Amino acid sequence: MGADRVNGGAAGGRETGPRCIGIFGPFGSGKTTLLEAVLARTGAIARQGTVGAGNTVGDGAPEARAHAMSVEVNVAEAEHLGERFTFLDCPGAVDFLGDMVGVMPGIDLAVVVAEADEKKVPALQVILKQLEDRGIPRLLFLNKIDRTSSRLRDVLAMLQPASAVPLVLRQIPIWNEGIATGFIDLALERAYVYRELAESQVINIPNEAMAREVEARFSMLETLADHDDVLMESLLEDIAPERERIFADIGGEMREGLICPVLFGSAEHGNGVGRLLKALRHDAPGVAATRARLGLEETDGPVVQILKTVHTLHAGKLSVGRLLCGRLSDADTLTRPDGEQVRISGFYRVNGQQASKRPQAEAGDTVGLGKLDGVNTGDTLGGSAPAPQLAPLEMPQPVLGLAISPRERRDEVKLSAALAKLCEEDPALVVTQAQDTGETRLDGQGEMHLRVALERLTGKYGLAVETGDPAIPYRETIRAGASVRARHKKQSGGHGQFGDVAIDIRPLGRGEGFVFNDTITGGVIPKQYIPSVRAGVEEALKTGTLGFPTVDIAVTLTDGSYHSVDSSDQAFRMAAIQAMREGLPDCRPVLLEPVHQVTIACPSEATARINAIVSARRGQLLGFDARSGWSGWDEVQALIPATELSGLIVELRSATAGVATYSSRFDHLAELTGKAADLVLARHGRQAA
């Protein structure tokens, strides 16, 4: 039980000033529809659009319209009763988790949209855990109440495992023939009936709902009293608590992360939106609390946290940032983390796909800043000096990759520039250049993540590309030794070429690499030519008998001869190459495949299915344990061949309602023989030795 709250709340008075609200929730829960309803209710737009019609402020990008889902953060502003709010509507699919992670440091409060769907509880937990770990206050908006037939108490019990703190009902529905036609506010003890896309109307509490209201209100007060001694005493002595104390406790305990209040409604019909706006106005903390959460002391100069980066075709780069301190206007100068100064070239108010000029901003505002070169999502910018980096961006490890190349060779530079912009906009995308194969590889968080990236390359940047599975870095080694002598001799007029070497080849233990020695005595090969012999050996090892780099091998130069006129570095290098190519086939070459250590995170109820997937992919299960800090989740440890990781994430998410993920790292090389090896060699135009 907590200490007494003076005047019923830790917050004192209601926060004022511009506030930034994040909207989160599982895929399909109705986040974009809720944003649209909020904008319509506040008069920011004339009419509420729908996702189906493709006329919402959010999800305005062509890719979002095409897939009828959020694929990036949507920004919109609204005013309610004289107070300004910026809403950041985040994608719900786990593929686009990176965008959600980027905006979290700058928000004051999270509205988490959920629905009465048991299959989406793990996805809800993923989102709530991110917010909980960052200490971000949050409330839950239970959407689609018009489609819910279950008792709200049962729905709350179903959703509770997703939250580390109590979910506290602030309302209960008024039912009419199984349909929620209104609600009773448990703090106000007042009843309302819904009106389509309009404010609810106050009515008397129906007689048949009074008993439910009393029970639900007492349950709410009991939970609040766990952190308020005075309220607990009132309940024990059967004294009606002051209404102001109840309101202060709800807001104060939410801001402290002790509870997660629950509101409900139907975003599609605008039901419950007014009550949500009232809660945001009275209970959402402001920028001062966000500064404190980030460990930032207030300063006179500007401090900006960059939440999102966008590249527009006409206006160029736009950095969406939260102004945590000070004031800003167009042409002001900011300082990057590396100490370099950049000048703002364009100062904007962002609403969906539109950006309009604004004159200035004060602490708490969320603004679009034009053409800040070298500034990335996650950076904290200072005024005349660098600011402490408040929330460095930590992206999850990619789980799916593609080899990508331009269809036309002349577009290579254009593709490189476009990929760089995509990665600036979405830091969860990673572009690498494979040294072994020369491939350009694009990695991301899932199938849809990469699909959207490719659609942007085509639609936004006009690039035609070709994609395929990334090449697996197979290796080969030897199981036996051999001794071989080779002579490179060539005469074509003038100085000829002469190099003669005898070498011993033997296998090394796995992971020992390459060792070269020489036992030359008596000057049969001059010392200046020995490095050339080694260079020739290494050249031959780049493409072994099976067509792959050869590893874990020792080569000893034992004998040879030279010609005083015709010997040269090149001649001995060629002799060494010839010796290796003649000797390696006799050393029983064998194919090696990379094996990764993989950690799979999944809901506990899916662990058995995950184990079966691992086994079907030639994986070796090492065991599983409870996932630290995650109630109801496991971590499965396994060794899986790299080739079997292709498409693994698609199968894992199919088995876990879209929430499983994994991390991997190279562990060792393992021999690959039999039919599996034959298939690999056939794909590479080779055959077993």
Automatic annotation (TrEMBL):
Signal peptide boundaries: none
Entry's Gene Ontology BP terms: ribosome disassembly
Domain Tr-type G, first and last residues per copy: 16-290
Keywords: Elongation factor, GTP-binding, Nucleotide-binding, Protein biosynthesis
Domain of life: Bacteria
Key word Transferase present: no
SUPFAM superfamilies the UniProt entry points to: EF-G C-terminal domain-like, P-loop containing nucleoside triphosphate hydrolases, Ribosomal protein S5 domain 2-like, Translation proteins
CDD domains hit by this protein: EF-G_bact, EFG_III, EFG_mtEFG1_IV, EFG_mtEFG_C, Translation_Factor_II_like
GO MF annotation terms: GTP binding; GTPase activity; guanosine tetraphosphate binding; translation elongation factor activity
Entry keyword Nucleotide-binding: yes
Pfam (any one): EFG_IV
InterPro entries: EFG_II, EFG_III, EFG_III/V, EFG_IV, EFG_V, EFG_V-like, P-loop_NTPase, Ribosomal_Su5_D2-typ_SF
Biological role: Catalyzes the GTP-dependent ribosomal translocation step during translation elongation. During this step, the ribosome changes from the pre-translocational (PRE) to the post-translocational (POST) state as the newly formed A-site-bound peptidyl-tRNA and P-site-bound deacylated tRNA move to the P and E sites, respectively. Catalyzes the coordinated movement of the two tRNA molecules, the mRNA and conformational changes in the ribosome.
NCBIfam families associated with the record: PRK12740.1-3 (NF009379), PRK13351.1-1 (NF009891), small_GTP (TIGR00231)
Record-given protein name: Elongation factor G
Naturally occurring in which organism (per UniProt): Stappia indica
Species classification: Bacteria, Pseudomonadati, Pseudomonadota, Alphaproteobacteria, Hyphomicrobiales
